């Protein structure tokens, strides 16, 4: 019989907004958000419970009536609009479901824009708490913690991690178990005839299918189990994970079916490729004698599928991932080593051969599961909501203050790839344009296609990994691959429209820019094939940079090496090149620098900010700390002299540049210098945490949008391209590759900066 749930209660909280994935989207967070919202609404019928779901596909989903506003996962402005909606809706509390993968931006950082603008308390449920977060993951979670009145975790280990790794005060954390349906404790034989497995022992695994679930290990355990228990059946219930479907279709499921065939166990294995509703799930769970979670990764802080199976009184065999270790302690389940099919087989055989032990284990699990049913969990959440509201009442009232423009985030244009696509054909990106018309006469160059690859990697980081971006990235990578002369380990630069390389002296800057692009592919791209391809060429091309004499070639390479080392931190050749080039740049600085002219050369020319940028990147990647200090000093001097009397960005003009002690060229101002300054300031901010560099990045970026000597928009919002420069009295209206890429790279970096820079959360009235 069903256990009686707690009595329905009333609360002074009248309106609750739940933010997260939501059914009919097929994922664990969507199911959790639905069940939590439904349970709170059932237990507190006087409260208005509604949902703000997150869409991962352009068409969205056919949501039920309680979904009142939809967030587009990859659009940061959508998060701001959601905050406005929630503020105007007068929600008393927001209950946010957090998992890095469900929000846009680096490490899901777009959600921090939502939190920054909310005017009510937030209670955040953390579905993932990492023990070894990368810097982006750590920063995002700490900002979420700062912006939330309460944090809910589902295990003691998660609470420990929050305290010790993320420095969250104990008093701010609530431990509430993962909710489960109120299911009956039944004999598995009651349901077996519905599935045609009467008289057989049945093991079950359910949930979205992906390689991390370790199904292969269970399949490999089957022959040994069948030798002792011939009637044994293993059922795998669940659709393939949607993201896996998008990337590779049903290749993984097919590989499992092929493995079952090779092992000779197909008659004893059943795959149900469906996302089942709760009633069906109860029946599947009901017939199972054993529930199996052979996951491969210990770093899983919670598992909704394990919670469901455990709570309805299943005997569980699992690998010792964190949540399983905690839930199955004290004889409530069996733990076996990771990646050990023999141990898995032995544990299942032993349990099925010992009915008394198996039933005792089931009863222990079921009794503890009574504390996890959704009606209990709903009351615990409302208690947390009330604590959150009380915590705001303890904050002294401050009148609402309108933020000045200097305090607000910058309004950034949308990312338009129209002109980029027009300038790209099957060979690569054309080098020049007449107005907005690509010019075949000058063909292509490796410099531009390397910049274009960098852009596609940044777009990936922003979540803009759409089909068009993937197609363009493949074209630019193919160009770079073709440009690399393996016999010389050098990159050729200029390719005619007739697809013939133009004889030339190898360009040192081209070698550096190509290594920069390859390092970005290795360190930041999520496409495994790009990582493998780029690392191979990077390793071949890297030694040649030591033979160059151009400080800019060294600088481009240093930035690429820093990105490469993000993935391969122990790579000695890359670390050695980093130290060598850093030493060379510092030596140049020492040789030419004075108090009045603290610079690397006797004149300022093009891409100037890339030199201090490289020193800062070197220090951030584990190089000489002195390099970072000198990089900050020289960049601060550079941004100071790149200002007009009115405070707008004024790069060194290319019509004569700026020799020491000589006359500074005011024009032609080039987009590439604005981008170099934006990029260097972003690097400086991440190195120092000083908001001064955010402001300087904004000043440099606004040059594209009219914040310049002529007050003219260098970026063409109509075409999506960028003019080639600012002359004494007009724009150069040609929109070539270098200029357009300079703008798009700057815009992408500003959007990433907006996603990862600190969020200040004021209490209501603050």
Summarize the structure in words:
With 766 residues, the protein is of the alpha/beta class. It folds into 3 domains: 15-179 and 375-393, Glycogen Phosphorylase B (Rossmann fold, 3-Layer(aba) Sandwich); 189-370, Glycogen Phosphorylase B (Rossmann fold, 3-Layer(aba) Sandwich), CATH 3.40.50.2000; 418-755, Alpha/alpha barrel (Glycosyltransferase). The chain is built from 27 helices and 24 strands. A 7-stranded parallel β-sheet has the order 3-2-1-4-5-6-7, with helices on both faces. A 6-stranded parallel β-sheet has the order 10-9-8-11-12-13, sandwiched between helices. A 3-stranded antiparallel β-sheet has the order 14-15-18. A hairpin with a 4-residue loop joins strand 23 and strand 24 (731-732). Helix 17 packs parallel to helix 19 (508-524), helix 21 packs antiparallel against helix 22 (572-592) and helix 25 runs antiparallel to helix 26. The protein is globular. Residues 1-5, 395-407 and 758-766 have low confidence and may be disordered.
Quick summary:
With 766 residues, this protein is of the alpha/beta class. It is 46% helix and 12% strand.
């Amino acid at each position: 019989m069903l256990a009686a749930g707690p009595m329905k209660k009333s609360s002074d909280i009248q309106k609750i907004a739940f933010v997260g994935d939501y059914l009919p989207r097929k994922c664990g967070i969507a199911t959790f958000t639905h069940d939590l919202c439904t349970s709170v609404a059932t237990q507190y019928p006087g409260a208005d419970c509604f949902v703000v779901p997150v869409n991962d596909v352009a068409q969205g989903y056919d949501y039920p009536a309680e979904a009142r506003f939809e967030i587009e996962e990859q659009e940061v402005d959508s998060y701001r609009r959601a905050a406005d909606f929630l503020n105007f809706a007068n929600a008393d509390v927001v209950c946010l479901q957090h998992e890095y993968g469900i929000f846009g931006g680096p490490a899901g950082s777009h959600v921090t824009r939502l939190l920054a603008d909310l005017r009510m308390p937030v209670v955040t449920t953390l579905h993932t708490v990492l023990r070894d977060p990368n810097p982006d993951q750590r920063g995002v979670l700490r900002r979420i913690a700062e912006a939330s009145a309460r944090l809910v975790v589902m295990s003691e280990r998660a609470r420990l991690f929050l305290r010790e790794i993320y420095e969250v005060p104990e008093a701010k954390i609530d431990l509430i178990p993962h909710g489960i349906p109120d299911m009956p404790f039944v004999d598995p034989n009651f349901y077996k005839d519905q599935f045609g497995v009467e008289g057989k022992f049945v093991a079950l695994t359910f949930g979205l299918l992906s390689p991390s679930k370790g199904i292969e290990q269970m399949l490999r355990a089957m022959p040994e189990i069948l030798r002792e228990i011939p009637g044994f059946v293993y059922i795998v219930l669940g659709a393939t994970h949607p993201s896996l479907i998008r990337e590779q279709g049903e290749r993984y499921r097919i590989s499992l079916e092929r493995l079952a065939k090779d092992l000779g166990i197909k008659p004893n294995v059943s795959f149900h490729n469906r996302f089942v509703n709760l009633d069906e799930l109860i029946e599947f769970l009901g017939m199972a004698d054993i529930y199996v979670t052979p996951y491969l990764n210990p770093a899983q802080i919670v598992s909704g599928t394990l919670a469901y199976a455990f709570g309805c009184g299943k005997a569980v065999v699992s690998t010792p991932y964190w949540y399983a270790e905690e839930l199955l302690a004290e004889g409530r389940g069996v733990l076996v080593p990771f990646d050990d099919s023999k141990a898995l087989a032995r544990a299942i055989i032993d349990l099925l051969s010992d009915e008394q032990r198996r039933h005792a284990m089931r009863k222990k699990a079921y009794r503890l599961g009574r504390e996890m049913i959704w009606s209990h969990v709903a009351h615990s959440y409302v208690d947390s909501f009330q604590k959150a509201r009380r915590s705001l009442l303890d904050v002294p009232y401050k009148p609402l203050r309108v933020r000045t423009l200097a305090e607000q985030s910058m309004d950034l244009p949308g990312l338009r790839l129209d002109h980029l696509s027009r300038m790209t054909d099957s060979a690569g990106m054309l080098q020049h344009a007449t107005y907005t018309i690509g010019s075949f006469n000058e063909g292509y160059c490796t410099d531009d296609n390397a910049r274009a690859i960098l852009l596609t990697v940044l777009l990936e980081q922003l979540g803009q990994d759409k089909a068009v971006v993937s197609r363009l990235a493949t074209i630019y990578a193919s160009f770079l691959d073709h440009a690399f002369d393996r016999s010389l380990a050098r990159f050729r630069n200029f390719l005619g429209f007739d697809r013939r390389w133009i004889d030339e002296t190898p360009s040192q800057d081209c070698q550096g820019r190509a290594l920069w692009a390859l390092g970005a592919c290795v360190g930041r791209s999520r496409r495994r094939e790009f990582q493998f391809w780029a690392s191979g060429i990077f390793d071949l091309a890297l030694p040649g940079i030591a033979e160059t004499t151009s400080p800019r070639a060294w600088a481009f390479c240093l930035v690429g090496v820093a990105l490469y080392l993000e993935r391969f931190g122990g790579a000695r050749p890359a670390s050695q090149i980093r130290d060598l080039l850093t030493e060379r740049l510092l030596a140049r600085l020492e040789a030419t620098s004075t108090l009045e002219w603290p610079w690397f050369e006797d004149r300022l020319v093009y891409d100037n900010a890339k030199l201090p940028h490289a020193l800062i990147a070197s220090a951030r990647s584990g190089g000489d700390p002195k390099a970072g200090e000198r990089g900050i000093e020289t960049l601060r001097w550079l941004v100071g002299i790149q200002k007009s009397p009115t405070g707008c960005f004024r790069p060194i003009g290319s019509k004569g540049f700026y020799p020491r002690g000589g006359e500074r060229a005011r024009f032609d101002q080039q987009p590439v210098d604005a981008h170099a300054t934006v990029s260097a300031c972003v690097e400086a901010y991440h190195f120092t945490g000083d908001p001064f560099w955010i402001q300087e990045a904004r000043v440099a970026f606004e040059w594209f949008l009219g914040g310049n000597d002529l007050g003219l928009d260098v970026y063409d919002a109509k075409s999506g391209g960028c003019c080639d420069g600012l002359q004494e009295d007009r724009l150069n209206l040609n929109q070539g590759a270098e200029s357009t890429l300079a703008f798009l790279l700057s815009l992408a970096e500003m959007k990433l900066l907006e996603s990862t820079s600190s969020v200040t959360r004021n209490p209501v009235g603050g």
